[in-house]
């Protein structure tokens, strides 16, 4: 589908010359598109695991738990343990453990996040006078009662801080529709309290990558973040000091890179995702032209 793996095809193509210790991947547009793995994704991930590199897949969606993503990847033909998935359920729980282990939180959230908080031993409460942190999340069970609790904790008792799992305004569905995401809940709470959301643990905030680095025990500079969007994954990697690669199989097209300022550009540009493996190794593995 693209030109040879040896000679790099276009002036915007730039591929790594070394292996990294850790590989962090966006999912949609990077590993799969809809219900199909993208070309080269499977052999790349299998090879990285074989070479003992850490592999992590990211998602901003807090309405699923990592096991659900692991099942999806496995069903698509890439068998994956839940431990390789980090979504905002994981980063929110981890951020609380690292920064506010004794806080009492009110999660406006669906079951996966509530379960994770419970399993991590985080205190939760619906009593406004006890709440230190209100977590605004993607919650399809959001209602006036929950808004009142958040309002009382933040505005009336003047004690709670507002944080969010992810800054997405809506979650896109196939066919162009979508549904309101966490930003809708943040907006409702900000609107009535005048408070500002202080922390976001999802893309593009570098907190997400920093949390993952701590979880994996790796340095940002020893990993590479690969995604299909400049303003989410690549922005986050640039802000976290992590090398990054944009793959042109999703949202970003080669021509989008032409007018971008250097400050927004990743280290690497890949026509397909298995170009993350250095060319000499691809030849050694007999991968030949892609
Ligand atoms: Mg994507």
Concise structural overview:
This protein is an alpha/beta fold.
Can you tell me about this structure?
The protein is of the alpha/beta class and 290 residues long. The protein folds into two domains: 22-60 and 206-284, 3-Layer(aba) Sandwich (Rossmann fold); 91-200, HAD superfamily/HAD-like (Rossmann fold, 3-Layer(aba) Sandwich). The protein has ten helices and 15 strands. It has helices at 41-50, 66-75, 88-99, 111-119, 144-156, 182-193, 206-216, 230-240, 254-258, 279-284, and strands at residues 22-26, 32-33, 36-37, 54-59, 85-87, 104-108, 123-124, 133-136, 161-164, 170-172, 178-180, 199-200, 223-227, 244-247, 268-270. The strands form four sheets. The protein has a six-stranded parallel β-sheet with strand order 5-4-1-13-14-15, sandwiched between helices. The chain has a five-stranded parallel β-sheet with strand order 7-6-8-9-12, with helices on both faces. Helix 2 links the parallel strand 4 and strand 5 (85-87). Helix 3 (88-99) packs parallel to helix 4, helix 5 packs across helix 6 (182-193) and helix 7 crosses helix 8 (230-240). The model is unreliable at 1-11 (pLDDT under 50).
